[in-house]
Design brief:
Shape: elongated
Low-confidence stretches: none
Number of helices: 4
Length: about 100
């Protein structure tokens, strides 16, 4: 009786994990993300145009911050194709599968 509930929980969590990795935001979410990036860059550029001298520090900081933020969001969404990987979690599940044989 102790084995069946634990096995059932194991199957449930793997099914939940598999379903979570297959669910992705729809295209309008990504378009909204890009649109918000462009709007914020436009507003910063509008505020900075009042000065006669361009501040390259602010321009590069905004560009780097927006690029890094978008990259991290997309890398976390698609975890198997990028620098942020979930190999350790996959290895744990593969080891568990080997031990069940």
């Amino acid at each position: 009786m102790l084995l069946l509930p634990a096995l059932n929980d194991l199957i449930d969590i793997t099914t939940t994990r598999a379903a979570a990795t297959q669910n992705h935001p729809h295209l309008p979410i990504y378009l909204l993300l890009v649109e918000m990036s462009l709007i914020s860059a436009l507003l910063v550029g509008y505020v900075m145009c009042a000065n006669k001298v361009r501040s390259w520090f602010y321009i590069l900081t905004l560009s780097a911050t927006m690029s890094f933020t978008l990259y991290v969001i997309l890398a976390l969404e698609f975890q198997r194709s990028g620098l942020i990987r979930v190999d350790a979690a996959d290895r744990t599940l593969a080891d568990l599968r080997k031990s069940m044989r």
